[in-house]
Design a protein that fits this description.
The complex is a heterodimer of chains A (252) and B (313). Chain A is an all-alpha fold and 252 residues long. Helix content of chain A is 82%, strand content 0%. By secondary structure, chain B is an alpha/beta fold. In chain B, helix 3 packs across helix 4. Classes of the chains: A mainly alpha (252), B alpha/beta (313).
Chain lengths: 252, 313
C-alpha cells in the first residue's frame, strides 16, 4: 500500500509538471463551454422537452471529441518508460508489477476526474446566473457524471493497455483512440440499424452500446448494469496490461 | 555473494549469454570485461532480476534471481548502462522518490540523501531538472540512486561511461571507498579501470567466459611476447644484429633516431627479462644507454590473446 502511494504521487506529479494535463484540461473546458452554449441556445428558443443536462451531454459531437481525452492521458504512461529505459530502474527496486500498473491507472483516473470539475462548475454558474430558474435535475446530473466516470474508467484502462504494448506514444494513442471509438461507434451503428434486426439482438446490443447508457443516465435513470459492464471491462484491460508488463519477467 | 550456474540467455535465436558459470565472494570488486555485445549487460540484467535466464540459475545474496526476485532486488543497487532517469524530475526529488521505493523514510531518508549526494558530488545540482544535466552528472545521479539503500551488492553497468578523466578518477575513489562494506560487480571495456580498482576480472567474449582471475595472474599467464625498449648512443653498424644475438630476444627494430640516440624495441620471449643482459652488452661495447624500459603486458593484451584463441576454437 505504501509503495502504491509513493508511485501514485510520482505519477500525478508527472501529469502536472508536463503540459499534458493542462492541454487536456483546456480541451475539455472548451468542449464543455461550447456544449453549455449550445444547451442555452435551446433554452432561448422557448419551452422544450428534456433538461439542460441532457442537452449538454447527449449531442453526438460532444462524445466524439470526448474520445481524444483518453489517448492524450494514457499514451505516455507505459510507452515513455519503455522508451527511456526507466522500467529497468523501476523494476529493479522492490515493487510489484500490479503496483506499477495500478498507480499509473489510478493517476489517470484522478486526472480524468479533475477534468470534469469545470463542467460541474458550469452547471453551478447556470444555476447562479438564472437564479434557479433553469431546472437542473439532480438525478440527471449525478447520472451524467457517473456514466462519464464509468466510461472513463473503461477507456483509460484501454489506453493503459495500448500504452503497455509499445514504446511509441503515437502508436499507443492510435490504438487506444481506435479501440475506444470502435466500441462507441459499434453500438451506435447497430442502434441505427436496430429497426431492421430482431428485438433480442437490439437488446443485446443495447447492453454494451454507450449511446444507450448515456441516454438512460443523462435522463436520471441510474442503471447498475452499465456500471458493472464498464467496471468489469476496465478490470479486464488492467489485467491484460499487467500481463503485458509482467511478460518481460517470464519471457525465457 | 553471486553464484551463477550455466547461465544462458537467448534472444530471438541468438545466444547473448552462453553457459556462464562463476562465483563471486563477498567484499570483492569484480570487473566484468568484454567488448560491446559480449553479453555483459544481459548478464547484469538477469542478476538484477529484470529478466529471466533462458537456462541455468543464478543466486544473489542467497536468493534465486527468478523465484525470489523481490529479496534479490532489496539486496542490490543496480545502475543500468544508459543511466535511465525521469528527466522531468529534479535531482533531489528523484532520489527521494527512489529512496522511498527502496523502503527508506523519515529522518534516515533525509540523512542518507545528503550522504549520497555528497559522496557522488551532485549536491550542487540537487534542485536542477535531470533533463537539463550533463551526461556526467546524470551518470552520478544514477550511481547515487544505486547506493541509496546501502545494498550489500552493487551491480554497475559501465559506471564511468561518458565521464571526463577527472570524474572517472572520482568514481574510482568512490568505489574503492565502498569496498570494505560492499561487493561490487562493474562492467566496463576500459581496461585501465579494471587494473586500477578490481580484485578479480571476469572476461567474457560472445557470451562465453574466457577467464576469471586476479588482474596480476591474468597478465602473468600471458603467452605473448613482451617488449623492452632501450635508447642507446652507438656508432656500431651491427647494433641490431648484436642485440638479436642475445638469448631470448626474438627481434630488434630501430623505431626512431634522434641526434645519435637510437630508440630500439626488443621483442622478448614470454616471461623473460633481458634487461640485465642488454646492459652487460652495452657496457662491454661501450654504448651509452639513457633509457631501458620493460613494457608490462596489459589486460588488453590478455584480452586480445584470449579472444583470438576463443575464436580459433
Amino acid at each position: 500500500m505504501r509503495i502504491l502511494w509513493i508511485l501514485l504521487k510520482k505519477e500525478l506529479r508527472a501529469f502536472f509538471v508536463s503540459p499534458v494535463a493542462y492541454v487536456v484540461l483546456a480541451l475539455v473546458m472548451v468542449l464543455s463551454g461550447y456544449s453549455l452554449r449550445a444547451a442555452l441556445s435551446i433554452l432561448e428558443r422557448g419551452p422544450s422537452e428534456g433538461s439542460i443536462v441532457q442537452w449538454i451531454f447527449q449531442p453526438n459531437w460532444f462524445w466524439l471529441s470526448y474520445f481524444f481525452v483518453f489517448p492524450l492521458l494514457t499514451m505516455r504512461l507505459f510507452a515513455e518508460e519503455k522508451k527511456m529505459g526507466t522500467f529497468e530502474t523501476l523494476f529493479t527496486t522492490p515493487v510489484r508489477t500490479w503496483q506499477v500498473v495500478l498507480s499509473k491507472y489510478l493517476a489517470a483516473v484522478l486526472v480524468y476526474s479533475v477534468l470534469w470539475m469545470p463542467t460541474w462548475f458550469n452547471f453551478k454558474i447556470v444555476d447562479w446566473i438564472t437564479a434557479g430558474q433553469v431546472i437542473i435535475p439532480p438525478g440527471s446530473l449525478t447520472g451524467s457524471f457517473l456514466i462519464l466516470l464509468a466510461m472513463g474508467c473503461f477507456n483509460l484502462a484501454v489506453g493503459c493497455f495500448a500504452s503497455s504494448l509499445t514504446s511509441n506514444q503515437i502508436i499507443a494513442a492510435v490504438i487506444s483512440f481506435t479501440f475506444s471509438l470502435l466500441h462507441f461507434l459499434g453500438g451506435l451503428f447497430i442502434m441505427v440499424l436496430g429497426r431492421k434486426v430482431s428485438e433480442t439482438f437490439v437488446d443485446i446490443i443495447n447492453y454494451f452500446a454507450s449511446m444507450e447508457h448515456i441516454r438512460t443516465f443523462t435522463s436520471g435513470l441510474i442503471d447498475t448494469r452499465p456500471l458493472v459492464y464498464y467496471t468489469s471491462l476496465a478490470l479486464l484491460f488492467l489485467a491484460f496490461t499487467h500481463q503485458v508488463v509482467e511478460f518481460r519477467r517470464w519471457k525465457p | 555473494m553471486i553464484d551463477v550456474q550455466d547461465l544462458t540467455k537467448q534472444y530471438a535465436g541468438r545466444l547473448a549469454v552462453d553457459g556462464l558459470t562463476f562465483h563471486i565472494e563477498p567484499g570483492q570488486i569484480v570487473g566484468f570485461l568484454g567488448p560491446n555485445g559480449a553479453g555483459k549487460s544481459t548478464t547484469m540484467r538477469i542478476l538484477s532480476g529484470y529478466m529471466p535466464p533462458t537456462r541455468g540459475r543464478a543466486t544473489v545474496n542467497g536468493y534465486d534471481v527468478f523465484h525470489q526476485s523481490l529479496e534479490v532486488r532489496r539486496s542490490i543497487g543496480y545502475m543500468p548502462e544508459t543511466a535511465p532517469l525521469y528527466t522531468e524530475m529534479r535531482v533531489k526529488e528523484y532520489l527521494r522518490f527512489r529512496a522511498e521505493l527502496k523502503g527508506l523514510s523519515g529522518r534516515a531518508l533525509s540523512q542518507r540523501l545528503a550522504e549520497v549526494m555528497d559522496l557522488c558530488m551532485i549536491a550542487d545540482v540537487r534542485r536542477r531538472l535531470i533533463g537539463h544535466l550533463s551526461k556526467g552528472y546524470r551518470q552520478r545521479v544514477a550511481l547515487a540512486d544505486a547506493l541509496l539503500h546501502k545494498p550489500p551488492l552493487l551491480i554497475l553497468d559501465e559506471p564511468t561511461n561518458g565521464l571526463d578523466p577527472m570524474q572517472i578518477r572520482q568514481v574510482r575513489e568512490i568505489l574503492l571507498g565502498l569496498k570494505p562494506t560492499h561487493t561490487i560487480l562493474l562492467s566496463t571495456h576500459i581496461l585501465q579501470e579494471v587494473e586500477a580498482v578490481c580484485d578479480r576480472v571476469l572476461m567474457i567474449h560472445q557470451g562465453r567466459l574466457l577467464a576469471h582471475d586476479t588482474p596480476e595472474m591474468l597478465t602473468r599467464r600471458l603467452r605473448a611476447a613482451t617488449l623492452v625498449q632501450i635508447e642507446v648512443q652507438a656508432a656500431d653498424k651491427a647494433l641490431l644484429a648484436k642485440l638479436e644475438a642475445l638469448p631470448n630476444i626474438r627481434k630488434a627494430t630501430l623505431d626512431h633516431e634522434d641526434g645519435g640516440w637510437k630508440k630500439i624495441s626488443l621483442r622478448v620471449e614470454a616471461r623473460q627479462d633481458v634487461r640485465e643482459a642488454v646492459m652487460e652488452l652495452a657496457t662491454a661495447q661501450q654504448w651509452k644507454v639513457r633509457e631501458i624500459y620493460r613494457q608490462m603486458p596489459t589486460l588488453e593484451d590478455v584480452f586480445v590473446e584470449l579472444a583470438a584463441s576463443d575464436l580459433a576454437r
